[in-house]
Amino acid sequence: MDSCRTFVVITLFPEPVLGVLNSSILKKAQDKGLVRFIVLNLRDFGNGRYRSTDDYPYGGGGGMILRPEPVFRALQFAQTLLGVPPEGTQKQVPLPLRIVYPTPQGQVFHQKDAWAWSLDPRPILFLAGHYEGIDERILQGNPIEEWSAGDYVLTGGELPALSMIDAVVRLLPGVLSDPQAPQKETFSGEMFDYPQYTRPPVFEGMEVPEVLLSGDHARIVQFRREKAREKTLRVRPELLE
Question: Pfam families from the xrefs (predicted)?
């Protein structure tokens, strides 16, 4: 498969999504030809003259639900862009891409999942819901994975999608200037990352630990390991169990 990884986001709010994708590390990854981002406006696939995408829920209740037709058309269009045949929309046919629906009802996304996705060459398509969610028939009729950014509720699926994209992209070979950086970060092992310091050596009466200025690599490694363990025990002790 193409070494350039592809990420697709279907959303009602393409502008803020593009703003994030076209900045910082994500933009650098694009400029290097390592990733490609496609953002589709769900409104373009809406119903009727006014491109309607939502409606009231059957059975009553507050909020609006994304209608199945616009979502289905957007999924089909995205799959066509990626070279997936129309019959690939059927659940029994394995797709050469991963379709992700960010939802608080999904399995929680962890660093180990980011690593797994970074090693999977398939394109990843994110369906960013809004309002009270999407019509359940979309989830029933398509091989969609439900993933959560955590046990809390957000207004839409854009922020979880962007956080997952960022977590995966930064693990791809060539994206970060230091290829060893991901191996040193929080959650790459069993502990948090160690505390970091930069200039000036003294700020508001607080000094950088002497060991970090010593030039003694062995002492620095030991200090960082101890501090990482201390913080992990204090904040997330279950990670060390």
Answer: tRNA_m1G_MT
Whose tokens are 């045949």? That residue is 85
Q: Which residue has the higher pLDDT, 65 or 241?
A: 65
CATH 1.10.1270.20 intervals, the chain? 190-240
Reading the block at residue 211, the tokens are 């060991």
Contacts of 84 (CB under 8 A, 6+ apart): 95, 96, 97
Strand partners for 202? 207
pLDDT in tens, 60-117: 988 999 999 999 999 999 999 999 875 544 544 456 899 999 999 999 999 999 999 9
- The answer to whether the annotation marks 174 as part of a ligand binding site is no
- C-alpha–C-alpha distance, residues 211 and 115, integer Å: 33
Distance CA 137, CA 53 (A): 15
Q: Give me the amino acid identity at 140.
A: Q
- AA identity, residue 68: P
Note the pTM of the prediction, 2 decimals.
Answer: 0.89
Sign of the C-alpha dihedral computed for residues 110, 114, 119 and 124 taken in this order: positive
In angstroms, the Cα distances linking 75 to 64, 72, 137 are 20, 5, 13
CA 81 from chain center: how many Å?
21
Hey, which residues does 146 pair with through a beta bridge?
101
Closest by alpha carbon to 64, among 15, 14, 129?
129
All CATH 3.40.1280.10 domain ranges in the chain, comma separated: 5-169
190-240, CATH topology level: Trp Operon Repressor; Chain A (1.10.1270)
